[in-house]
Amino acid sequence: MRVPFLRCPFTRADIDAVSAVMRTAEASKGRAVEDLETALRRYHGVPHAITCNSGTSALDLIWRAYLINGDLHRGDKVIVPSFTFAAVAASVANAGLVPVFADIYPGTWTIDPASVDMTVCKPKAIVAVHTFGVPCDMDAICDFARQHHLLLIEDCAESLGATFKSKKVGSFGDAAILSFNATKNITSGEGGAVLTASWKLADTVGLLREHGIVPVADKPGYRSTAYAGYGLRLPNLNAAIALSQFARLDEMNHARRWVAGFYRDNINPDLYIDQARPAGAVPVYQIYATRVASARAGLRDKLFAALKGAGIEAKIYFAPPLHLHPCYLDPVHRTRALPVTERLAERIIALPCYPTVPDADRHIVASALNTYFVGEGEDP
Ligand SMILES: Cc1ncc(COP(=O)(O)O)c(C=O)c1O
Q1: How far is the CA of 121 from the centre of ligand 1 (A)?
Q2: Among residues of the chain, what percentage have pLDDT more than 70?
Q3: How many C-beta atoms surround the C-beta of residue 249 within 10 A?
Q4: Is the pLDDT of residue 343 over 80?
Q5: Span from the CA of 371 to the centroid of ligand 1 (angstroms)
């Protein structure tokens, strides 16, 4: 591709950090994991951060821990957005819980909890995904969760470093997850973490992450299993990369905002509609996406193909949306229609947005988008 969607922003410092761990005997467990957890805790102002090997694992661990601790029970319903990544709903379903899909706001593309019929659904938890790095309106979400006595899980896989009214996302809910996969705001290849203020949740998540194994009282060296757990640790080698990247997080997020700002200033607003931000939200644009303004059927897909033909790698999110996936067609997963989600999923296109997008690439992308519509859908 002439213009790739992503180049991982690894630096000499990241390479040095992982090399340093390679020279120790701490490839699996070790100091970098502890330091990363401390850094995440401090940055978010939450008492507990537990790393694991992916954002998906972080979600799995939270649901399983809530079941073990008796905060949730099998068959309980959990409100999730349909316009998001598959792992959000799959983690709920895999835990024996029932995902119920909500629509999104047309401007911010984040979850609209009022779109769920609460008399039909009777949920026990809600997942607020800060979509593409744009924070949800956390005043509204926290009020909703409080009013309906719901556990609030923030999915910050796409939003590490974003703030709402000067407070870091990930510090509002009962628990939150982070992801460090290659496309995210920091990466360790793959990786993730659970954030929470609850020592009980943190304790169970920590145990489950390491097979549920506990020492046996008065029997030095003996180990027993408290809960049938998993092997989901973040390797120390990967933690060293994440920690090194974390030192540059704010700088890299600033650069992402700059790239997004360039697109916003240089892409014709009559043709494309930008993702709105709730008042008080500072986004971090893990993804920069824009919405094709024209309602002409199939236009976004033609644009996507035309960009590919011109050597520009764009992405389509999230089409089809989750509630239309074969495994969620059962009516139990929906209380109402999701018209905003369905319309948006046909019209969004994501553009290269990472901290080091070259000047030339940004100009090529903006000009391709603007000229595509000169002949109402001609090749750029
Ligand atoms: C909103 C959301 N939740 C969860 C995940 C899962 O994270 P991971 O890829 O680290 O498993 C992702 C991303 O990939 C995501 O975008």
Answers
A1: 25
A2: 98
A3: 17
A4: yes
A5: 33
**Ligand 1 contacts CB of residue 179 (under 6 A):** yes
Per the rule left: phi > 0, alpha: psi between -120 and 50, beta: everything else, 359 is alpha
- Ligand 1 centroid distance, CA of 157 (Å): 5
Q: Check: CB of residue 73 under 8 Å from CB of residue 67.
A: yes
The atom of ligand 1 lying closest to the CA of 56 is 11
Q: Which domains does the chain have, with CATH numbers?
A: 12-246 (3.40.640.10), 249-376 (3.90.1150.10)
Q: Sheet of 288-292: strands edge to edge?
A: 272-274, 288-292, 348-351
Separation in Å, CA 143 to CA 99, 114, 173, 301, 332: 21, 12, 11, 38, 25
Tokens representing 205?
Answer: 């998540």
Beta-carbon contacts of 299 under 8 Å, excluding residues fewer than 6 positions away, are: 292, 347, 377
Is the model's pLDDT at 116 over the cut of 60?
yes
The whole-number pLDDT of residue 8 equals 86
Q: Among the residues of 95-235, which ranges form H helices? A: 118-121, 138-147, 199-209
Instruction: Give the separation between CA 236 and CA 241, rounded to whole angstroms.
Output: 9
Residue with token string 């067609």? 329
Q: What φ, ψ does residue 299 adopt, rounded to 5°?
A: -65, -40
Closest alpha carbon to 260 in 352, 380, 168, 163:
352
Query: What is the spatial distance between Cα 147 and Cα 142, in angstroms, rounded to a whole number?
Result: 8
Cα distances (angstroms) measured from residue 9 to each of 187, 251, 379: 9, 12, 31
Do 113 and 125 meet the contact criterion of CB atoms below 8 Å apart?
no
C-beta of 133 in contact with ligand 1 (< 6 A): no
Does pTM top 0.85 for this prediction? yes
Q: 87 CB under 6 A from ligand 1?
A: yes
pLDDT digits (tens, 9 = 90+) for 54-76: 999 999 999 999 999 999 999 99
Any ligand 1 atom below 6 A from CB of 158: yes
The reply to whether ligand 1 has any atom less than 6 angstroms from the CB of 181 is: yes
The whole-number average pLDDT for the span 229-254 is: 97
